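A note from the maintainers: we've had questions about how concatenated examples are separated. There is no special marker in the raw files; a new sequence line simply starts the next protein. For clarity in this README we add a label.
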Amino acid sequence: MKKVFVSGCFDIIHGGHVEFFKSAKALGDYLVVSFASDEVLLKYKNRVSALPMAHKKYLLENLRMVDKVYSSTNLDDPILDFKDAFIKEKADILVVTIDDKNIEKKKAFCEENNAKLIVLDKPLDFKPISTTEIRERILGK
């Protein structure tokens, strides 16, 4: 079984996230998703999560392409906040998007853990929107 792993804030789940999960799952048999915990968001993004962690976990667990969900636990590293879950799952592939600013560090982590890093483009059949843009729309900015 080939395990695929993705991580991110996934603070407000939107269509771009779902497409990312579908594309990642297509690379293997089992998809593990790690989302940023409240502590990680506060410490490294300086913001409070839009959704309580239990709600975020529930949403992710109930997407049909997602097989396992973790919240990030590594507060010592803002880039690899998911590393404990990745190692525990013995993931074969770490998937990131083309705009990830930390590809080199994640590539080195994969090499250390006998895994492959795959970088995906962001093709969508609809106009993309970011979590920040969703927050601004809600606030009427």
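[label: protein 2]
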Amino acid sequence: MEFPAIDPVALQLGPLAIRWYALAYLCGFLLGWVYALRLAQKVGAGRPHKEDIDDFLIWAIPGVILGGRIGYVLFYNLDFYIQNPFISFEIFGTDLYIPSALAVWQGGMSFHGGVIGVAIAMIAYAYKYKIPVLKLSDIICAAAPIGLLLGRIANFINAELYGRVTDVPWGVIFPGTDGQPRHPSQLYEAALEGAVIFIILFIMAKKGLHHRYPGILSAMFLMLYGIFRFIIEYVRAPDEQLGLFFNVISMGQILCLPMIALGLVIAIHSLRYKPHDVSK
């Protein structure tokens, strides 16, 4: 099927173009924040409570953006940024130069880098305010699939991060490619990494498992994302500048392996102790 003609610019305000990708980030943060507030404790019922989630949002946003961008530069295109340290862009008729690594509109973001950035922010916040880091992490991980769902849909609208050539009936001919139908891998990721993980963690949270086994939602998120992403990478086109390592495995798959391992370690740590009595 032909790619639907969707303008990646959602709204044009004079020289300012607001893209669907930016809106996906914004809506992901807002909806995730609202859901995290629902999962947080009331004041006096243990931490993290709702005020902690409000305060942590200020820490999480730079963690996602800086971690995601730095991760992309280091994991996916380091040689390019070493060879091209600065980039120019025009604003109001004037050419400005900034470090190319800061030009988030060129190149993209790394999910794995964003995870590292948020993890650092969570550890720092939890240490500063004496909050159990796994309890905070459970809430953030339960809300994260909302942003993943919206972000992958935005990737599809941008006709980026598409899949490998395929003969399946739902293959999409993306603009700017060789004209062959390809897997809409962005939608696979939206469904599995976004919707499916959200539903699983929602059910687990509904049963109160994160209260009895702190860290269990974090563990499930890490393992499920790592597994789903690892599988989808087999139908997703590898990054042009990297290709496949040993003609077998992609950078995305390599980065998923420590996620799965860390999730397993956290799950064992969480389940080895007697369940907490949440009635007190």
